[in-house]
Amino acid sequence: MSTSALAAQGTLYVYDQAYENPSGCYAVEDALVIVRNDTDEIAYFFDEPGCEGGLVEVVQPDTTSPVIGAQSFSIG
């Protein structure tokens, strides 16, 4: 199975960075970000790098939310 088959469809915006059809784990650069989830998947934000540690926020599809204290996120 290709990785594109596992990707969320749409765009996830984390502050000023756009992730088109995201999948996998990504670093978060700032302690406070505004997230706009224009994908078809849930985005999970973690308090440690590498999508480990505690879950600090869940951003549902078609939702905009502030996220505080995240160091990484996963989707797809």
UniProtKB/TrEMBL annotation:
Q: What is this protein called?
A: Uncharacterized protein
